[in-house]
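#struct-queue
[09:14] JT: dropping the first one here, sequence first, then the structure tokens:
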Amino acid sequence: MKKEKQMTAPPGADASFNPPRNWKAIHWTALRQQVRRLQVRIAKAIKNGDRRKASALQWLLTHSRAAKLLAVRRVTTNRGAKTPGVDNVIWRTDRQKLLAADNLKRHGYKPKPLRRTYIPKKNGKLRPLSIPTMHDRAMQALHALALIPVAETGADPYSYGFREGRSCADALEHVHLVLCKKRSPQWVLEGDIRACFDEIGHQWLLQHVPMDRQILRKWLKAGYWEKGQLFPTRKGTPQGGVISPVLANIALDGMQKAIRQAVSEEGDKVNFVRYADDFIVTGASKELLEQKVKPAVTAFLAQRGLELSEQKTVITHINKGFNFLGHTVRKFGDKLLTTPAKSNVQALRDKSRLCIQSARGLSQEALLHQLNPLIRGWANYYRHGAAKRTFKRLDHYVIWQLWRWAKRRHPKKSAAWKQRKYFSAANGAFSVRLTKGQDKAQVLTLYKAASTRIQRHIKIRGAANPYDPNYTRYFETRHPKGRRWRQTEGNAPTPQGQNSTRIVAHWLQVAAACPIQGAPVEEA
């Protein structure tokens, strides 16, 4: 009897069997479902300790056409889509994107050098930024799809940076919960890793990152091009790389465990919160943080070629306060307040002032289209803390600047005339009436930060994993369109900037139906 060849899915269920000929006709939801199902299986294998199976599934994912198309889509739709590498190539047309997906192959792959540029930092110094080519970025995005489930499964519970379903608001809420009680710790170690992305040791990454080591070695040793010369890269990961945040998180995971092992459980009041390379550690005394916690962190980082920044790593009493993720956390008696940092408030004031001053030749409508997203986005970020007073002061400052703008435009007109022209369309607010067709009028009004409703953020569970089926329902309830986020009169209309982590049930079923042709898909 002739033995039939076994298939895990019918030809119509996988984009690999039906290569799309039109980029706009691709069923992206179906592709995401295929990739997500493999990612869930990778996370399950890692959780069960079966690294050989996880490696095989990673190879399957990085060679699937669905993942390749999603990788190309990611690098052609993000903010850097119009930023070329050293080859000066950008994928604009649909034909270029389809061809790029076909060329994402491991065999014969050789990354090109990075294009080095510099961006200014807050302290006036310059931060080096290394930009890969579009092809290299797509390859990194492809392998990141297979690496992220592994990183999420083994991540520190209280790490919040560059992780799906987590945000700055979760880290800040964790800090608030740790320090708000009467018996909370009084001392805080503010940790900052010096040049984290630029100093990570290549040898450690090659030995501990669970991915294709040949591909990883090529990325790390690609070098960078600056001022007509090629320079080697002996350490660090490029800050412009798609996969660099995942590599940095893998390198820093385990810090929480190292700190726990260095201190005793009772009476030390040690808590750890990390966002990317910024972290805080609380303690019952200053001596505990100096003699036990800081040496443990230093030893942990030394194994990875990293070290603490002596200037930014300080130990502070909670009554004096400290800055974390653009917020000032300080205790006044028994009351803990998390307010916008003064430097960030001043930065927004300067930015809004420059925006208004440079708009002398713009119409009122054009000026509002520039100001409203700026104010709304800033207010959305700070709406989870004690920011109402700051919002009111900011609104007063912006109105004062707009009044000066109106006076410069019409120096010979009276104040009453300026009031009627610029502040009468919406009950005294800076606004303009727009006309759209016959008998259709719309009023565009300056967004007021004080209209943003202050809401306490609900922190994500530390053990929650978006690739674990046990947390499917939990992440569905945390979706911005679900229970946690409601559009009310006082809320800013911009939703939270978090990716959906919903795992649809039929991705995990043994006999799922193909979303395109309805054929059953068997689980491999």
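[09:21] JT: and here's the second one, same format:
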Amino acid sequence: MADGMSRRRVVVGGLTLAGAAALLGRTALAGAADPPAAVSALVEADELPWPEARAIVAATALPTFPSVTFNVLSYGAVGNGSTDNTAAFRRAVDACNAAGGGTVVVPSGTYVTGAIYLKSNVNLRLDGATLRFSGTASNFPTVLTRYEGIECMNRSPMIYARGERNIALTGTGTLDAADTSSWNKGSDRTWLESLVAAGVPPEVRIVPGSGHELRSSFIEPYNCDTVLIQGISVRNSMFWQLHPTLCKNVTVDRVSTDPSTAHSNTDGCDPECCDHIVIKNSDLGAHDDNIAIKSGRDADGRRVNVPCQNIVVFGCRMNGNWGAITCGSELTGGIRNVYAYNCTLVGVTKFALYVKSNTLRGGFAENINLDSFSGVLDRSVAFVTSTYNSQTGSFVPWFGPLAITNSSCTHAGRKAFDVSGLSNSHIRGFVVRDGNFSDVIDTSNVLNFVDDLSFTNVWINGARIPDVNPMLANRYEAERATISQGAVETAHAGYSGTGFVNYANLTGSYVQWTVNAAAAGTATLALRYGNGTTTDRPMDISVNGTVVASGVSFPSTGVWTNWTVKRITAALNAGTNTVRATATTVNGGPNVDFLEIASATSPPPAVRYQAEDATISQGTVATNHLGYTGTGFVDYTNVTGSYVEFTVTAAAAGPATLTFRHANGTTANRPMDITVDGALVADELAFNPTGNWDTWADATITTPLTAGANTVRATATTANGGPNLDYLEVRQ
């Protein structure tokens, strides 16, 4: 009963298959081309300030479908607001899947239904329809799911898939779960935790019929690959709204979630134990966290042991009452590589960044980055706690590096920064750069057990706080450049250096910098500006006399004390270049603070080689001390000559940095010889005491590697053997 039999495959988002790889950040589905009403303008992936984030977006696969459609009306669905359409939706999805895939179309109307199970190669598209999920509990079968990071068998989420591939939920309709309140209730996690403690496997942790109740999430692809959720609105959720779990390649695009306070714990989007997640241009309402990144809870999280990683968020409106970007508290499996850009905070959002765990939960959150966040904060810009809910155990969490750049707020109800590690697990880097935070009620900050702290050009309530270990880029202050028809001023807080340039209100006024490039090639030009008017102040950007970007928009920043960054890419010559920003209207340009130049390519990341996967002579793989990565560490036998040997690959011949992560709980140095391809490169490198066996440190050397495979051996030189060795990282 398919409505069309063309077998041409289409990329959801209106792209041809050939063009998809280059434009993954710009998908646009027919009928869903506009952002949610509360999101003022679409942000594109090529605006992301981190090359690593752009690479994640480009690598996140989008689903493709044959162009055949299956109208649910042809399978018995009736959109009259009363007929039970559970079976009709199932028939339509089954037919689409059996035919090799396509799009199940739900035309305008109100469709009462139970759970909808998506199968591989099926796109469920709402064309102005409302799906009203019913109060009939039996229409929601028992499936494998999670409740607050713990696996169990519970009633199905409203939209569910498990082990499927190439699926989508798209269109312009609304999904409403208000009627499920009769059965979708309960929060008896203590009972569920007792089953975990008793060793009951997930498939036997059956909630329905147990006498206990736990709420089901709204939309939950489980262990799926290549998922798109686009254009739809979610309303009246009883629990977490979007909850991809154990998935790869998930895109959430132009989705609206519910900010209603009628129910608790209605997080907007909670990716859990996922890899390659893109959340963009969405209006994320919630009565809890807007985005909460998770990776399992306590003992069950350690059993599953899958991190949540490679997550990019941009262009979103955050309208919840806890964290805009939250890591945890269910982060036992770890969280890494999070990049969030250009998001607006409204309502009573408490924190822009909220990182939380404790020694019962353990886990880690590393390489978490926020840039260009702005709005109102009920409490703090960042709250990082390792003692969440005062729960304790023997699993020490660790956090960092964490970074907040180019961000601002117009109100913070408490301190700007409340960041605390533990005495035995310090925060491993906390960076704030180019921030302007106004109406902060408490101007003191809490920064306990924080290593590698850096504040650069940070303003609180109109006063610049002292720089701490400032981070210096290739920055060129506007007040030191050549200025034509403009003046250096200091009237508006938040600038860096000694002032900013106020352009004269004339066409042709400009600022021109002389900049240096180490080598010819493409670079990113970042102009930091403020525009307190209500109109755009466009400028032409020229390099060495040639316009490389015409009429670049410099829209309003709301007030003159709000600063943001406009980025473009351009080719630079090796050596000296001139960069000019010229006003193109009689209003002149915006206020300009500085120009920063960065290579369009970043240094390659370090490659990590786990010690437990290496060749071990006179040592064992152990797990009896906290804080290791991977599946364990190597405990050297207490003899001279015990060693761990890694085989590492170098892309090219040349110097490389070798970093050995280790722990030494004794009071004596445990030196080791480091050899590369049999040649000694570090004689008795010190591996000094780290205080206890749960505290890890780095020992670093630089040495040449040959192109291709190299052997790196770390050999104990005393009868005490070597330290405990976690991994070797190699960076060229």
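[09:30] RK: nice, looked through the second one.
[09:31] RK: The two ends are 58 Å apart (CA to CA).
[09:31] JT: good to know. Residues 558 and 712 are 55 Å apart (CA to CA).
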